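Retry 2 of 3 after timeout on previous attempt. Resubmitting structure tokens to design endpoint.
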């Protein structure tokens, strides 16, 4: 994926694919994102390695560098809507460090996500945010994202590490 360097606030920002050398900073930023939402991160460098670079990686990350330091990241994955012949790229995380916000870095990360979506032949992009995150909502609306009602209740099944399913499951 070809990324370009773009200048914001007279300081160069470079968006690129995450590399293994970024794992520790991604861990720090993911932890900061969880804290921002009042959560406690339970991830690890090993989990990030598995999910982004492992043989069965399930996501990609783009990172923004400003003044030679990582200032933010976007975590994304694509999935099909087979019944419509459509592929959707979802931005699962968009994070910019506290001191780096307000300089257009989030906007540049989303633009890089659009490039990745096009590269993957996606017909749509999706992103969600906490209802109280007015700044993120404003950003997404300014970029042309439209609010969308969910199509129903989402469910999840916790898979214990020992492989056991709830009694009577099958």
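Retry 2 succeeded. Sequence:
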């Amino acid at each position: 994926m070809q990324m370009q360097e773009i200048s914001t606030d007279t300081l160069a920002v470079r968006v690129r694919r995450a590399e293994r050398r970024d794992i520790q900073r991604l861990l720090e930023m993911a932890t900061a994102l969880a804290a921002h939402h009042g959560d406690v991160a339970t991830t690890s460098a090993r989990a990030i390695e598995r999910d982004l670079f492992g043989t069965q990686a399930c996501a990609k990350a783009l990172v923004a560098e400003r003044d030679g330091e990582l200032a933010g990241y976007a975590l994304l994955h694509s999935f099909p809507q087979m019944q419509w012949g459509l592929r959707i790229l979802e931005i699962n995380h968009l994070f910019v460090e506290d001191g780096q916000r307000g300089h257009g870095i989030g906007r540049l990360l989303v633009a890089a996500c659009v490039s990745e979506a096009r590269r993957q032949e996606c017909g749509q992009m999706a992103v969600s945010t906490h209802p109280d995150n007015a700044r993120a909502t404003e950003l997404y609306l300014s970029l042309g994202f439209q609010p969308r009602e969910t199509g129903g209740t989402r469910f999840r099944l916790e898979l214990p590490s020992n492989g056991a399913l709830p009694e009577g499951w099958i």
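Attempt log closed. The first strand starts at residue 5 and ends at 8.
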